[in-house]
Write a structure and sequence with these properties.
Layout lengths: L19 H26 L5 H10 L6 H12 L7 H24 L3 E2 L2 E2 L1 H5 L1 H22 L2 H24 L7 H26 L4 H28 L2 H4 L5 H5 L4 H9 L2 H12 L7 H11 L2 H19 L7 H13 L5
Antiparallel strand pairs: 1-2
Helix pairs in contact: 1-3, 1-4, 1-16, 2-6, 3-4, 3-8, 3-16, 4-6, 4-7, 4-8, 6-7, 7-8, 8-9, 9-15, 12-14, 12-15, 15-16
Length: 345
């Protein structure tokens, strides 16, 4: 691996704290690289079919922290990558894959909101959202081919397949209270954490890291992604809707089996279990059921247990970076793990 300190020796030191400060510090270090990624995104959204760039721009411009492409850029730079824009172009691939999955997920979930704004399917319809999601997947693979590395193609192709498997597994476990925590974790490893892991592994590959270092960065991404999804699942019951950017309680209404439900169901008495079976398994819900579900979660500390599990995964992510020499970008990546579990508490 190239000398990790040489790539950051001329960069300003960062002292990341918590929350937005961490991402701000990281952007101060790799902001130019992210701009190159954004230019690649804009260029590859172009199409003579006007609806494609219009719909794609709607969801991409809706916000988000660009966390996944940032991970590709930051891990590459942390490990000494000093090339041109290869890492930025691959970061654009990651963002296209992520955006395509969001478009498809919102159709499957019949979501009306995405990051606080009307979802693409609510504005443009389901058919257009699915087809533009397909377009973005195709664009991502065109960018991979342009990179010219079979290793890169293998990483992102495998991640894309794993994401699809995770989404299907979530569909299979929906409304099924016999789902155990191991099965639930399989879902979130697939649908969310696999792309985090791939994003970080790409940075290692671009920087020419050893296999052991590549695996460590992929594990950092996997653990970070698990923590990220655990927090999302907790916030579906605990967040302010305006801050959350989607309707609170969507998971409950859709019968998604997440850790807050599993904890509350396991700890509940017969009457409580009957409530969960009626509302989740049988999908028979009244207007008052969400409030009662949240009260049961509070009674059994289900939200706290989910946050604690997320914090444990974030701690594992930080431990995965132990073998890398200290530099400002590593400090930010350590901070990102903490930020992931404290973003809206």
């Amino acid at each position: 691996m190239p000398n990790p300190t040489s790539a950051t020796a001329d960069l300003p030191s960062a002292a990341p704290g918590s929350g937005e400060d961490v991402l701000g510090a990281l952007l101060a270090l790799v902001g130019d690289d992210l701009q190159a990624c954004n230019r690649a995104i804009a260029a590859n959204m172009d199409s003579p079919v006007a609806l494609i760039p219009q719909l794609a721009a709607h969801i991409i411009a809706a916000g988000g922290k660009r966390l996944r492409p940032l991970l590709t850029i930051a891990t590459a730079r942390m490990c000494g990558y000093q090339g041109g824009v290869r890492h930025a172009n691959l970061a654009a691939c990651v963002e296209f894959i992520h955006t395509a999955t969001l478009l498809h997920d919102d159709v499957v979930d019949e979501s009306a909101l995405r990051r606080g704004l009307a979802s693409a399917n609510a504005v443009f319809g389901n058919k257009a959202s699915v087809l533009v999601g397909d377009f973005l997947f195709a664009r991502a693979f065109q960018l991979m081919v342009s990179d010219g590395s079979l290793r890169v193609l293998d990483i992102l192709a495998c991640a894309s397949a794993t994401i699809a498997e995770g989404e299907v597994l979530q569909l299979v476990t929906q409304n099924d209270l016999s789902t155990n925590e191991a099965r639930y974790l399989d879902v979130i490893r697939g649908k969310t954490a696999a792309l985090f892991a791939a994003a970080c592994r790409l940075g290692a590959v671009v920087a020419g890291c050893s296999p052991a270092q590549e695996d460590a960065l992929a594990e950092y991404g996997m653990n970070l992604g698990i923590a990220f999804q655990l927090v999302d699942d907790a916030l579906d019951y605990a967040a302010d809707q305006e801050k959350l950017g989607k309707t609170v309680g969507d998971d409950f209404r859709e019968g998604k089996i997440t850790l807050p439900i599993l904890v509350a169901y396991a700890a509940g008495d017969a009457e409580e279990r009957a409530f969960w079976q009626r509302t989740v398994e049988d999908s028979e819900q009244t207007d008052d059921d969400l409030a009662h579900a949240m009260a049961l979660m509070d009674r059994h500390n289900a939200i706290r247990a989910t946050f604690d599990r997320a914090a444990a995964s974030a701690a594992e992510a930080k431990a995965n970076l132990a073998q890398f020499p200290d530099n400002p970008i590593k400090a930010c990546l350590l901070g990102v793990a903490d930020y992931t579990v404290s973003r809206v508490r």
